[in-house]
Amino acid sequence: QVQLVESGGGLVQAGGSLRLSCAASGRTFSNYAMGWFRQAPGKERKFVTTISAGGGSTFYSDSVKGRFTVSRDNAKNTVYLQMNNLKPEDTAVYYCAARRAGGYYLSLKSYDYWGQGTQVTVSS
Questions:
Q1: Closest Cα partner for 35 from 11, 10, 66, 2?
Q2: What span, in angstroms and rounded, lies between the C-alpha atoms of 97 and 9?
Q3: What are φ and ψ of residue 108, in 5° steps?
Q4: 91, 121 in Cβ contact below 8 A?
Q5: Residue 120 vs residues 1, 24, 83, 110: alpha-carbon distances, Å
Q6: Is-contact 5 29, C-beta < 8 A?
């Protein structure tokens, strides 16, 4: 079992930055691929980015590529999402997710564990 807790969300103006954190507990964090997803009001949860268990491989959705950066610190059992040049369309609840595997995963269904989410609101 893995417990995930996101933090770092908030209200920011367009063009601003936020860094989200996802702290994991319960199992060996370095064995888990991690993903970030987001869900806007009335919409489906969508893939944002993923990072492999060792941190050597990442993948981004086209909508955030070049603006968001995912990283992880396995010694701290934490994955980060640095979000720059935020846009109003980035407004959503952001979730981190974990899968005990190598590689990285884009599908929501690939992940076994989810955090409770953190709200990001970008004002225009």
A1: 2
A2: 16
A3: -55, -35
A4: yes
A5: 27, 20, 10, 24
A6: no
List, as one string, the DSSP characters of 48-75: EEEE-TTS--EEE-TTTTTTEEEEEETT
Amino acid at 88: P
Residue with tokens 């869900």: 39
pLDDT in tens, 29-38: 999 999 999 9
Check: CB of residue 94 under 8 Å from CB of residue 9.
yes
The residue assigned the tokens 């564990």 is 113
With beta carbons less than 8 A apart as the criterion, state whether 34 and 57 touch: no
Mean pLDDT of 44-54: 97
Read off the tokens for 34.
């991690």
